[in-house]
Specification:
The protein is 38% helix and 14% strand. It is α/β, with parallel strands linked by helices and 454 residues long. A hairpin with a 5-residue loop joins β8 and β9. The chain binds D-gluconic acid. Pfam families: Glyco_hydro_1 (PF00232).
């Protein structure tokens, strides 16, 4: 026994990272379009103006997926492509693009999974205060309605937000992502509350306007720490290290699981967080938590790495130091396959919702070899080790619904620009030529056997 027969094998991307066509067909600017024009923000001044030119090459990209036997495609919609000012006038050409993409996917027998927000906030809304503005939840609901009315006759799976940890933390606390601000904890907590409300209103909107039965989830991230042994104490220490809020307020406060997921699944913020932030909390109106905790159908979790934990004599987590030369990706992220067993297990035990891994993968130093192919044994090895752990979770009764490899294509890796290659398809940015990497063919055989070969 391993993965269920209806297990979803997919790949993921996001709009700003692949689409390009930043100024075409009436698209409005996003905060990323603007941020990338600022000096010293992005590696070597890279930007997403062309990216993988997916806007023009989507048919070819769907064919590549078909060739690799991919069953589902998680992509995001560029809000300013659909609503150039964020609200109000709809850009027909922008909406048509997603309509055609969805048709092409269905034609190729690939299930679309639509992410509504993967960080490219309309710049016009940013100028009006972005997530600080108390109207932001209703802006997001308006945008949701436009998308759902157009696509939900064919799209059956929607994801509201991708990684609020990152776009709030990196974007507004640490200033490493668009819009590059360093705001106070008071401000970022207020934004977080609006984002959660936006999620809730979006869920209500999807349910109201969907043209058929749909499933809804959201896709947070976090460090999925795992125990160094099966000892109960180590397991509990690892669990706490994932779900406890930090003991002190830091600039990277947004990087946690429970401030985001507890309100959504349980309808309240975590007690330890409320205590920690008591002097900085935004006004929480009556009814807010009910809106935020609209029932959803699944938890998507982006999992890349975790820390190994041992319990000390008081049961507190000690993070084990890794050996010199321990395995890591090109981005220097530690390779920790057990994160894909313990992460889903801990999350399932806490929130009791089917789990999709909405992202998992790595950046490697891929090159085109003399034979014209792209050999990426490190990626195959990484995916193999992680997927084996994920399969073990399935075998232990964790309800795992699907897996989306990040990413279909090499693409614009935020502040690292095009320096990092996360794709199972290589992109030559000089001529936009695509080459399926060895890992793409390997993934195909995983899918064909529903994970038997792992
Ligand atoms: C992420 C983002 C992706 C990244 C990927 C690799 O959700 O952080 O969803 O856009 O490209 O995670 O860093």
């Amino acid at each position: 026994m391993g993965f269920s027969n209806n297990f979803v094998w997919g790949v993921a991307t996001s709009s700003y990272q692949i689409e390009g066509a930043a100024y075409e067909d009436g698209k409005g600017l996003s905060i990323w379009d603007v941020y990338c024009t600022q000096p010293d923000r992005i590696f070597e001044g890279h930007h997403g103006e062309v990216a993988c030119d997916h806007y023009h090459r989507y048919k070819e990209d769907v064919q590549l997926m078909k060739e690799m036997g991919i069953k589902a495609y998680r992509f995001s919609i560029s809000w300013p492509r659909v609503l150039p000012k964020g609200i109000g006038e709809v850009n027909k050409a922008g909406l048509d693009f997603y309509d055609k993409l969805v048709d092409a996917l269905i034609e190729a027998n690939i299930e679309p999974y639509v992410t509504l927000f993967h960080w490219d906030l309309p710049y016009e809304l940013h100028k009006r205060g972005g997530w600080m503005n108390p109207d932001s939840p209703s802006w997001f609901a308006e945008y949701t309605k436009v998308v759902v009315e157009r696509l939900s006759d064919r799209v059956k799976n929607f994801i509201t937000f991708n990684e609020p940890q990152c776009f709030i933390g990196f974007g507004y606390s640490q200033g490493r992502h668009a819009p590059g601000l360093k705001q106070s904890v008071r401000d970022t907590l207020a934004m977080a509350h609006n984002v959660l409300l936006a999620h809730g209103y979006s869920v209500k909107t999807i349910r109201k306007y969907a043209k058929g039965e749909v499933k809804i989830g959201f896709a947070p991230t976090g460090s999925m720490n795992y125990p160094c042994s099966e000892r109960k104490e180590d397991i509990e220490a690892a669990r706490h290290s994932i779900f406890d809020m930090p003991k002190e307020i830091r600039e990277d406060w947004a990087w946690n699981v429970t401030w985001w997921s507890d309100p959504i699944f349980w309808g309240h913020y975590p007690q330890d967080g409320l205590k920690l932030f008591k002097d900085y909390l935004p006004k929480i109106n009556e009814g807010d938590m009910e809106i935020i905790s609209q029932p959803i159908d699944f938890l998507g979790q982006n999992i890349y790495t975790g820390k190994e934990v041992k319990a000390d004599e008081n049961g507190e987590a000690i993070y084990l130091t890794r050996n010199e030369g321990s395995p890591k990706t090109a981005l220097s992220w530690p390779i920790t396959p057990k994160a894909l067993y313990w992460g889903p297990r801990f999350l399932y035990e806490r929130y009791k919702k089917p789990i999709y891994i909405t992202e998992n993968g790595l950046s490697c130093h891929d090159v085109i070899s003399v034979d014209g192919q792209v050999h990426d044994p490190n990626r195959i090895d990484f995916l193999h080790r992680y997927l084996r752990e994920f399969k073990r979770a399935a075998e232990d009764g964790i309800e795992v619904a699907g897996y989306f490899q990040w990413s279909l294509l090499d693409n614009f890796e935020w502040h690292s620009g095009y320096a990092e290659r996360f794709g199972i398809v290589f992109v030559d940015y000089q001529n936009q030529k695509r080459i399926i990497k060895d890992s793409g063919y390997w993934y195909k055989s995983v899918i064909e056997t529903n994970g038997e070969i792992l």
